[in-house]
């Protein structure tokens, strides 16, 4: 326990609080009572004009942005800081403490989350613009983007099943997932357009699935196989990186099959010309 400093209060008509740093005086009250004070009528001991008593005060006062703060330091092994912060908020509210806010790791985490979300949003906008230039079609660009939310279904369920929180590694895993899902969608649309010059929209969609099924599945399951050791946390330190693997595995299992189904289906539905095109 931290050693607390003693304040000495001198009380008569008007209380006066003073702090004495001399060890000899603060350790022994008798010495303090005999402390000589110069007055107009001569030198008198302190006990003649004051009542002396001990009182504990704060050993250390911390401030953050000129406001009083309490530093809490601890070691966390596998439990995320978001859950620890949520538990502390619950305990403080039960104790009736409401006029506070938390700083530290949780503030850095929230700032990092906002930056990653902004980066994902900017990346999606740039991706749509790039696909519009390549395929000269806004509809095809949106079809390839629409599978991204579908892949998040598997990513969310994998985190729930693994009992992992939504944290910064999971956001990194989401970026990895989006990149693979978009690549598979681009392959399907590319083969759909290539076959569209010779076949009907329905036949082109089926042919795109038939030709790209094995490459898409190999990409997905190859990534899943590489992520399994990280998800199992078989090495020291991998427990903090395992959300990357959980998001990638769950998102690819669900997102790959939904990409093979919905991308050709939406391409067929949005194709205005249902007849066979000829080159």
Detailed description of the structure:
The relative contact order is 0.10. Residues 1-13 have low confidence and may be disordered. This protein has helices spanning 23-27, 29-33, 81-94, 105-135, 138-145, 147-162, 168-196, 201-231, 242-269; strands at residues 6-10, 16-18, 36-39, 42-45, 54-56, 62-64, 67-69. The protein has 279 residues and is mostly helical. It is elongated. The strands form three sheets. A three-stranded antiparallel beta sheet has the order 2-1-5, with no helix packed on it. A two-stranded antiparallel sheet has the order 3-4.
Strand order of the largest sheet: 2-1-5
Number of helices: 9
The N- to C-terminal Cα distance equals: 85 Å
Multimer state: single chain
Unreliable spans: 1-13
- Approximately what portion of the residues adopt beta-strand conformation? 5-15%
Helical amount: 55-70%
Overall strand count: 7
Which word captures the global form? Answer: elongated
Mean of residue pLDDT values: 78
Content-based structural category: mainly alpha
Instruction: Give the radius of gyration.
Output: 34 Å
Order of helices and strands: EEHHEEEEEHHHHHHH
Strand count, sense and closure of the main sheet? 3 strands, antiparallel
């Amino acid at each position: 326990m931290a050693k607390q400093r003693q304040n000495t209060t001198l009380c008569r008509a008007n209380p006066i609080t003073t702090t004495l740093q001399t060890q000899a005086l603060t350790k022994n009250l008798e010495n303090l009572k005999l402390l000589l004070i110069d007055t107009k009528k001569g030198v008198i001991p302190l006990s003649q004009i004051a009542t002396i008593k001990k009182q504990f005060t704060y050993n250390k006062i911390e401030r953050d942005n000129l406001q009083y703060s309490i530093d809490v330091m601890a070691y966390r092994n596998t439990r995320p800081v978001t859950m620890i912060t949520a538990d502390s908020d619950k305990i403080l509210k039960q104790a009736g403490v409401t006029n506070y806010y938390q700083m530290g790791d949780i503030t850095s985490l929230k700032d990092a989350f906002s930056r990653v979300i902004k980066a994902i949003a900017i990346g999606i906008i740039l991706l749509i613009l790039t696909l519009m230039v390549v395929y000269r079609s806004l509809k095809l660009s949106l079809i390839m983007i629409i599978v991204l939310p579908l892949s998040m279904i598997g990513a969310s369920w994998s985190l729930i099943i693994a009992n992992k929180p939504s944290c910064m590694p999971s956001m990194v895993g989401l970026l990895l997932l989006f990149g693979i899902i978009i690549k598979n969608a681009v392959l399907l649309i590319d083969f759909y357009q290539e076959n569209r010059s010779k076949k009907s929209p329905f036949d082109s969609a089926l042919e795109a699935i038939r030709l790209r099924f094995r490459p898409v599945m190999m990409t997905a399951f190859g990534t899943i196989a590489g992520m399994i050791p990280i998800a199992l946390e078989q090495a020291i330190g991998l427990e903090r990186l395992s959300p990357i693997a959980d998001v990638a595995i769950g998102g690819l299992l669900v997102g790959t099959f939904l990409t093979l189904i919905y991308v050709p289906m939406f391409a067929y539905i949005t194709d205005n010309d249902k007849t066979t095109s000829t080159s």
